[in-house]
Amino acid sequence: MPSSRRYPDAPRDDVVQELHGLRVPDPYRWLEDSEDPRTLRWTAEQEALYQAERATWPDADRWRAELAALNATDLVTIPKARGSRIFVERRDAGQDHPVLYVREGEAERPLLDVRALDPAGRTVLESWEPSVEGDRLACLISRDGTEDATLWVLDVATGAVADGPIDRVRRTSIGWLPGGEAFYYVGRLASEALYQRRIYLHKVGSEPDTDVLVFGEGRERTQFYTVAVTPDGRWLIVTAATGTDRGAAVYLADLSTSPPGCPDLRPVQEAGQGRTRVRIAPGTGPHDPMWLRTDRDAARGRVVVCTPADPAPGAWRELIAERPDAVLDDLTVLSGPELDRPIGLVSWIRHAAAEITVHDLTDGRELGTVPLPGVGSIGRISVRPEAGHEAWFPYTDYVTPPLVLHYDARTGQVGPWSPAPGIDAPRMKAGLETCRSADGTTVRMFVASPSGSPDRPRPAILMGYGGFGVSMSPRYSPLIVAWVEAGGIFATACLRGGGEEGEEWHRAGRGPRKQNTFDDFDAVADHLVEAGWTRPGRLAIIGGSNGGLLVGVALTQHPGKYSAAVCMSPLLDMARYEFHGLGPSWVPEYGSAADPGQARTLLSYSPYHHVVPDVAYPPVLFTASDGDTRVDPLHARKMCAALQHATSGKGPALFRFERGVGHGVRSASSGVALFADCLAFIAAHLGVSPA
């Protein structure tokens, strides 16, 4: 460690874990306990060190002002139309949290503003779902970033609380029954951990303790469920996945022949046979067609048709075939008296960018496309529950802040539904490039650069994720815009483990093949130098969550390649990750240290276990928060202590810790502060000033 910097004392205990005949040192095991006095003292001293270092960064406050200005846009979510009402979240420029509005005719009024519940800004609206008729609204509200929410029901006409709280819910779907008197939700027993859940039926106004257990009893402890009811109340759809495995079981029940509290759920597909979602139009009977979006027997996805009376795979008939050049992302059904046939909007991901095709769902014929403003990404498509010809969806790309588009199936026209964001278009461009990974696999990346200036090389930031089948699609980011407008290059890598090229691409970077993800990232870093975008000594990396694991591996496997690294809410101790937070649910993605072969794979790349003394590691900033119930901050603490002890590099290893926030939704100002500090840290080590 350089003599000019003194890190907080972190005793190295003689803790060694015996793992299938392997001796695995764990000198900072004590930092797993957030309430240990030594951890509290270490954290306080790290916070003081961080603030002292931040004070030396040139332009730190200017970076924050720059990101705040770029973030000050009017944002609107996709609307949900229910009866005569339209529900929409809107965050006006300068607001910290969005407000939920309800629109009736030309009149619009606020229905829920979390700022009124908590002026400190630590309360967030996680999600919400109106009843079929639009008279009631179920909403999930959480505090301090924990995502451990409480469920409330509001009377839409008055805004008054009609029911709640129902606690022990987390990111649950809501399946309203017609009439708004009851709904299905996913909750857990009081004695159980975050990842042990059940499906319940709740009658509005009743005590949660009397809710009827509908599904989940006796199933695996790491099951995740979704629940949905068709708007006519006839069909109940349940999915059940083991952990984060994408091959969920799917069940269907006819609520006209079995009671809502004891539905006769019949399997559509068993677990482990592919990712399948059911789409049923209102008014569908047992022998009418229903559609499934599935990657069973089609890794890139296809659409099949069957009937509720015979939904098993043996009865499926292919309607829209798998494409060799794109991944089927979702299917939305439009139907009703305005249309002479059911129409399908099929959203695709082609090399991470979104496309939408329009199909006749009687025979699968492609009728056309929905034109998009550019090369970007879309979100979930919203339609009226009672069927109709309208659809709404969000769109964004590197130079376009999120906006909502409206599609009319009668005319094929698409146009803006929300007002244009009130900022000037960024002075940047983005292009797709390719390189070869270590095993010859083609890997793609988006490279954002200043428009109108061919000058190279430039200081560059590389970001990636490469996990859980998540696609790194083009989207607006104040961090990227600020960096590029300051003269830098920002690259986003599409790595194996993600979903950019389908389920085979995902599986090629998970479990025993996880090293492929890291090799892909390394290849992209080399390409940026070889293609002249940047040069050695001017490349930084950033990633969060699973992307934080990616950064941790990159800086331990190739410490001399990067000039700075930002590791946000990271997963870093792969020998013990499954004992903390939502770790047990990630075993399908990473493997388990309880298995001898999988343990060796995990230890082959686990960043915490590959920190070597007297290596010149690059400057590293770790970020973590006390409300993070997904990835425990212990990972960042242990890795930071290990690097501070081992590094011979001139740059610091720093720990930025926040209170009252977590892994997910947060206030706009706290998000700006976090990403601005990350950018200022990188800029300080690459010698870049704001535009």
From TrEMBL:
InterPro entries listed in its UniProt record: AB_hydrolase_fold, Pept_S9A_N, Peptidase_S9_cat, Peptidase_S9A, Prolyl_oligopep/macrocyclase
Catalytic activity: Hydrolysis of Pro-|-Xaa >> Ala-|-Xaa in oligopeptides
Enzyme Commission number(s): 3.4.21.26
Keywords recorded for this protein, A-Z: Hydrolase, Protease, Serine protease
Enzyme class: hydrolase
All copies of domain Peptidase S9 prolyl oligopeptidase catalytic, residue ranges: 480-687
Presence of the UniProt keyword Hydrolase in the record: yes
Name of the molecule in the record: prolyl oligopeptidase
Organism: Microbispora triticiradicis
